[in-house]
Design brief:
about 475 residues; alpha/beta; Alkaline Phosphatase, subunit A; 2 domains; about 35% helix; about 15% strand; disordered N terminus
């Protein structure tokens, strides 16, 4: 028996797609209207550009990221991972486990650990100022990465990959969310690492998502000039001394017409050319915004003192942290601030204390300033490096690389404060409780930003790629 006409119609509506329904209803006028609306939406998206704000996958806890990157591998057992047994067994042969044969002796930290805040979080005296904000910190003491070599570990920290060039964490964030201020870059790296472009690049993502580097002429204001420092965004080059604004607009329009012609030759779609077009327009708009954001002369003396600006040890990093706050306040999505010289194979006692002194007060100033301005709740602040150090000594006064267990902390942006998450073994060699691989940390950070790490993908070379590859588990225990 044939089904009734009404049944067949119901079956068509239920089983067919909505697009098919529009195509076959009312002689296809529904689909015609839909196509027109879709074209208008596409034009609006194109006009807004690749950096236009995008809705997250779900309600976000954070809108911004400030990544305080300590390049070189800070010693977790001297800073945030308290190991009482390492003090009592100092000088004894290192245990023969996980490939260690006891060639070196255990080396106790030279700095005292104390509990701080209502939470009683353990922090070394190297970070007395940061310790005042202990109840804001979530210290992850069970971090792990794949390799104990600087180039590979540093790349994995930023891109999730050790072997291939992949988009950086900041580029993925910008790709997923866009930025709030179209007159400023969405991803900025202050004092970028030398010869480490892959850690803040966009790789196969469109070029619009790579970082804008702040260095070059700004470096003297942040500290001694480094060989090879990036000469990207500088106050001197933001505004041309030779052309007024109208003449610059004419010049940019000419270049953009050439870029548009190139785009047409490429068939109308070329992420690289589109990125170049967007970058020229952004650079033109930055002329009015960037000088205001980077001018700290109007900050109060109290604020400058808070960050340690003007003091010899803390001036450089203090200015960088203050700049990070101003950029986030201006709507920048992701700010990375790099501080080097955390590779202490020797002279640990003197060198580690010096590097910690340079950053302790500025970081504390940043945390307090963000909190006072109501920005910490929507900004994730991260402190960490590519790996930790060994509990046994290297030479008389040093520690070697350790990728199997180390510390990283986060604050603000929906992270639980006053919390120590995970643990290494009694001496700090290896993560043994709630191990947090770099992929898991990336997945967790994206989750705080309202992004599902499994859905944030980009099609390239025949398959969909993502920051966490095929790995990553969100550590929901650390989310408030």
């Amino acid at each position: 028996m044939m089904p009734s006409t009404s049944s067949r119609r119901r079956g068509t509506v239920t089983c067919g797609s909505r697009r098919a329904f529009l195509r076959h209803s009312a002689n296809g006028f529904g689909l015609l209207a839909f196509s027109a609306l879709a074209a208008e939406a596409a034009e609006r998206d194109a006009a807004a550009g690749p950096l236009a704000p995008k809705p997250p996958h779900f309600a976000a806890r954070a809108k911004h990221v400030i990544f305080l990157c300590m390049q070189g591998g800070p010693s977790h057992i001297d800073t945030f991972d308290h190991k009482p047994k390492l003090f009592t067994d100092s000088g004894k042969a290192a245990p023969a486990a996980a490939g260690r044969r006891g060639q070196a002796a255990l080396l106790a930290p030279r700095w005292k650990f104390s509990q701080h805040g209502r939470s009683g979080l353990w922090v070394s005296s190297l970070f007395d100022e940061v310790a005042r904000h202990a109840d804001k910190l979530c210290v992850i003491n069970s971090m792990a990465t794949d390799l104990p070599a600087h180039p590979q570990a540093f790349a994995q920290l930023h891109t999730g990959a050790t072997q291939f060039i992949r988009p950086s964490l900041g580029a993925w964030t910008l790709y997923g969310l866009g930025t709030e201020n179209q007159n400023l870059p969405g991803f900025i790296v202050i004092n970028p690492p030398v010869a480490a472009a892959r850690t803040f690049g966009s790789a196969f993502l469109p070029a619009a998502y790579q970082a804008t580097r702040v260095g070059g002429a700004l470096v003297p204001a942040f500290g001694p000039r480094r060989a090879g420092a990036a000469d990207a965004t500088t106050i001197a080059n933001i505004r041309s001394p030779h052309l007024d604004r109208a003449a610059q607009r004419t010049q940019v329009d000419l270049v953009q017409r050439l870029n548009a012609a190139r785009l047409e030759l490429d068939g109308g779609t070329s992420p690289d050319t589109e990125g170049v077009i967007a970058s020229y327009e952004l650079a033109f708009r930055m002329q009015d915004e960037v000088p205001k954001v980077m001018d700290i002369s109007r900050e109060t003396k109290g604020t400058l003192d808070r960050y340690g600006v003007g003091d010899g040890d803390t001036d450089a990093f203090g200015r960088q942290c203050l700049m990070a706050r101003r950029l986030v306040e201006g709507g920048v999505r992701f700010v990375q601030v790099t501080h080097g010289n955390w590779d202490h194979h020797f002279n640990l006692g003197t060198a580690l204390e010096s590097t910690a002194r340079q950053v302790d007060r500025p970081i504390a100033g940043l945390l307090g300033d963000l909190a006072d301005r109501g920005l910490l709740d929507e900004t994730v602040v991260i402190w960490g490096g590519e790996f930790g150090r060994t509990p046994h000594s290297q030479g008389a006064d040093g520690r070697d690389h350790n990728n199997k267990g180390f510390s990283l902390w986060m604050a603000g942006g929906g992270v639980k404060g006053g919390m120590a998450y995970g643990a290494t073994d009694d001496y700090g060699y290896e993560a043994v409780e709630k191990r947090m691989h770099i992929h898991d940390w990336h997945a967790t950070l994206l989750h705080l930003l309202g992004l599902d790490h499994e859905r944030l993908t980009y099609s390239y070379a025949g398959r969909d790629f993502r920051l966490t590859d095929v790995h990553g588990t969100v550590a929901r225990e650390i989310i408030a």
